[in-house]
């Protein structure tokens, strides 16, 4: 019998691998993409990062998804993923979508049977509730049971359904509470402030002008340092399409009232998915 795996691990995210790539020391620069010039302050030199405008604001990745036209009838499908389970013990997922005349789709996906987290109410507190900061990593991480993920991109042509889901959408309500005008790099905290973490409970930023250390919630510290779920303009923030949280992709062949195909999370091997039309 094949071993069953926690689906949160099967649909793993690239963020775990990038965490140590961006810096696992106690003191590191806080910012979605740390500046190499700040490495001497205890931070690590990060990648060049995304494109920015003249003011240093991240220009979120352009989407390749075509504009979706008037939609036809909605379809609802329920399925399961082989040899994998969520924390609740469920292996189920549900897709609801409608296609336009060119096969472009809009819809939603729900995984597992858990209760989704409530919308965020405080930009400086842990989100989702219950998440823990453990050595620069947020746990648990990955797909969140019960949450309604919008389909980021999708097509339905010749009975082939292809879907991409942006895991950063979980943080859309949290990102909307961030103040874009207060940040430097278009993320959820200034990138030119040095940061440090003392264990798993005390995280701080240093104001480069006053040299004062300011305490910050450790989950926010890690989100803003390594995962980059938010893309901010001058006044507002939304879920980023460039987050290291990654994507979940489905490639399903639908035949009558049944379907089967692959589901893959960033950095993982594909698992096999089955669907039945509701």
Task: Give a short synopsis of this structure.
The chain is mainly beta and 278 residues long.
Structure description:
It is elongated and about 65 Å long. The strands form 5 sheets. Strands 3-5-6-9-10-16-17-18 form an 8-stranded antiparallel barrel. The protein is mostly beta strands and 278 residues long. The longest helix is centred in the C-terminal third of the chain and has 10 residues.
Can you lay out the helices and strands and say which pair or pack?
Blueprint lengths: L4 E2 H4 L4 H8 L4 E4 L44 E7 L2 E2 L6 E8 L5 E7 L20 E3 L2 E3 L8 E10 L2 E7 L5 H6 L15 E6 L3 E5 L6 E4 L1 H10 L2 E3 L4 E3 L7 E9 L2 E8 L5 E7 L1
Parallel strand pairs: 1-4
Antiparallel strand pairs: 2-11, 3-5, 3-18, 5-6, 6-9, 7-8, 9-10, 10-16, 11-12, 12-13, 14-15, 16-17, 17-18
Key features?
disordered N terminus, 8-stranded antiparallel beta barrel, 35% strand, 18 strands, mainly beta, 278 residues
The averaged pLDDT comes out at 74
What is the helix content?
10-25%
- How many helices in DSSP terms? 4
Q: Structural class, from helix and strand content?
A: mainly beta
Record the strand order, biggest sheet.
3-5-6-9-10-16-17-18
Q: What's the story with the biggest beta sheet?
A: 8 strands, antiparallel, barrel
How would you sum up the global shape? Answer: elongated
């Amino acid at each position: 019998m094949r071993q069953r795996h926690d689906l949160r691990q099967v649909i793993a995210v690239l963020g775990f691998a990038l965490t140590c790539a961006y810096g696992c020391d106690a003191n590191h620069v806080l910012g979605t993409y740390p500046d190499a010039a700040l490495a001497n302050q205890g931070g690590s030199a990060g990648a060049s990062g995304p494109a920015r405008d003249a003011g240093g604001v991240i220009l979120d990745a352009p989407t390749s998804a075509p504009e979706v036209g008037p939609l036809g009838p909605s379809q609802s499908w329920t399925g399961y993923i082989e040899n994998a389970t969520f924390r609740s013990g469920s292996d189920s997922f549900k897709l609801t979508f409608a296609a336009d005349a060119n096969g472009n789709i809009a819809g939603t996906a729900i995984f597992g049977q858990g209760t989704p987290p409530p919308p965020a109410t405080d930009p400086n507190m842990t989100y989702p509730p219950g998440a823990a900061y453990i050595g620069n990593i947020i746990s648990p991480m990955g797909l969140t049971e019960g949450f309604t993920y919008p389909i980021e991109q999708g097509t339905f042509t010749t009975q082939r359904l292809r879907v991409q889901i942006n895991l950063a959408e979980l943080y859309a309500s949290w990102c909307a509470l961030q103040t874009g005008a207060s940040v430097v790099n278009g993320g959820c905290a200034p990138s030119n402030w040095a940061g440090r973490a003392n264990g798993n409970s005390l995280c701080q930023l240093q104001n480069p002008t006053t040299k004062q250390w300011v305490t910050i919630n450790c989950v926010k510290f890690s989100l803003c340092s390594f995962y980059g779920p938010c893309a901010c303009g001058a006044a507002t923030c939304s879920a980023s399409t460039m987050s290291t949280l990654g994507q979940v992709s489905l490639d399903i062949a639908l035949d009558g009232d049944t379907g089967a195909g692959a589901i893959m999370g960033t950095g993982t091997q594909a698992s096999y998915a089955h669907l039945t039309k509701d």
